[in-house]
Amino acid sequence: MSVFDQDTRIVDVSTLVRLYRGMVRIRRAEERILELLLQNRLSSTMCHVSIGQEAVAVGVCDVLRPEDYVTSTHRGHGHFLARGGAMSALMAELMGRETGACRGRGSSMHLVDASIGHLGSNAIVGGHIPIATGAALWSSLTGQSRVAVSFFGDGATTEGIFHEAVNFAAVRGLPVVFVIENNHYAMSLPWERATAQPSVARKAEGYGIIGVDVDGQDVLAVREAADQAVSRARRGEGPTLLGVETYRFLGHSRGDPSTYRDREEEQRWHARDPLLLEKIRLSAAGVAGDVTESLEREIEAEIVAAMEFAEAGPIASVDEVFSDIYATPLGGDQ
Amino acid sequence: MTGTLSSARTVSFRDALREALHEEMEADESVILLGEDVGRYGGAYAVSRGLLERFGERRVIDTPMSEALIVGAALGAAMVGARPVAEIMYMDFVTLAMDNLVNQAAKVHYMFGGQFNAPLVVRVQQGTGRGAGSQHSQSLEGWFAHVPGLKVVAPSTPADAKGLLKAAIRDNDPVLFIEHKGLYPRKGAAAEVDHVVPLGVADVKRTGTDVTIVTWSNHVHIALEAAERLSADGVSVEVVDMRCLAPLDMTTVLDSAGSTRRVLVLHEACRTGGLGAEIAATVGEQLFGELAAPVRRLTAPDVVLPAHTELERTLIPDVEDVVLAVRDLLSS
Ligand SMILES: Cc1ncc(C[n+]2csc(CCOP(=O)(O)OP(=O)(O)O)c2C)c(N)n1
Predict the structure, then answer these.
(1) Is there a contact between B235 and B142 (Cβ–Cβ < 8 Å)?
(2) What domain range is B112 assigned to?
(3) What is the pTM of this model?
(4) Is B136 one of the annotated active-site residues of the chain?
(5) What ipTM was estimated for this complex?
């Protein structure tokens, strides 16, 4: 069965449910992560959640192929899960276990999974944009059709490396999609005080590439824009700047009361909670409440199992703290 | 050391580097070059001349002027299968790619639990001798040797340059490969295809019994000249060429220091926080009771380098300075 939504986008109901499920999975995981953080059960104090922004990760990752690459940010739990990262690897990493995504060394800001082309989330704002660009360069040099996606915040667009990477990708027509996850604040600095050109589409014009401004609370809109951008990249038609407008519902990190935002603005965005919008669409498409209830139960079970997995795993050992500083140990055979 | 040195053939440092690039690109499709003017121009110091013609635009990539991107994209490509050799025209410009080298490339393997490697080489040219001025002459190797996860190489001879560059390209870690601008025309024994010098192994370039000079890069030649002069007076100097600055081969240094009991650490970089301090401290810690004199450092002073060639010359330790420092060390 297909639905015809108000924007005349045709998708089947299973896609709608899958997208909704992907967002709920991130939301519930991060709610649990926040609890763990408050209980001091995480191995690190650094933790940024993406609650309110789930449609971006889910909409984009839904159109990727297994061989594609992503790079992500300090606010990267959602990208990791949406890309196909294991809930158990996430929880074990956050809880500092050897069984975690980075053997317990990376924690919240450095999630990674080579097996799904996740080239790592990065705690230097903008630091991974050239990494995705370089992966795309190698894909293009070797005639592969892999596409690289770099997720980053509005704040990263004001770092110099953004310019260097976008310019290089543009001039070489690389298969990379730059997803500007614009939650309108870089910590406290509002977007309009960070840039005199708030439209990402207009920014793209300056680089001679395509740019699109997208409603980031509408997972279908994100998915469609990403699909076009990724398809263009795969066809060898170069990079896209995807400006996805969203909002982080909570503070920048723990202990940020967001005094720099007004409550009325927050309420306006809360009314456009991406999960809520998708749920409305689901019921308009005739999806019964028991479908959403059962996926909630499945996700809860997945999270509980992941936490059990994490707690059962060995704590990252101090005996191993010097291993892997180098991949080729010295004096080794060349 | 493995491989063959040719007794018949001599080659310049520049040509030796080009041979290494050429041979490694022949041997391994995943080796690519990228940087500013590395292709059509042949590299600002002509190291990659001819490689574009030989290997084509797919493997020799002229990038826009974007140092951070050059290193960052080299890293991204390295993580997914390439063995990029990036060129940064002057060491001074690596400051624009610090994040990419220090926070990214150096961290990838460890931080991600060993899931990814970063097999990239960043070639840079550094040093004085041409009056290149405050922003084109610095010796910044100490900064990078300070960062776990990076390997730092600074060869002094054509054969070492070739053998170490080949090893660096084959290595699975990020390597900062430092070429002193004064060395490019210098000739020496050529090395054959199979000549690979393992990283992290210092080389005794001259054996001696009275004093050890620990140095690297261009100053190896200054030390060797001073050693020659001193030998006329019956002073026997051992010259240890570190070759690799991170990790440091302290075993070779300590062996030499233990036998001569007098150590001079010599470098072109300025003094404070320079690698000489690290080497001197380690020798002091390990051999305090056995030394006949405190370890001495001979370095450039802590100064901004002027472009004026005469002023520049007075600031960098030369043969005469080394001879005096060794005599001084012997008399203490
Ligand atoms: C280069 C750099 N500068 C500053 C910081 C500190 N910092 C971490 S996140 C952040 C704000 C980033 O804003 P944005 O890129 O919009 O992402 P968001 O946090 O909104 O997801 C800052 C200033 C950093 N980690 N890296």
Answers:
(1) no
(2) 10-191
(3) 0.96
(4) yes
(5) 0.96
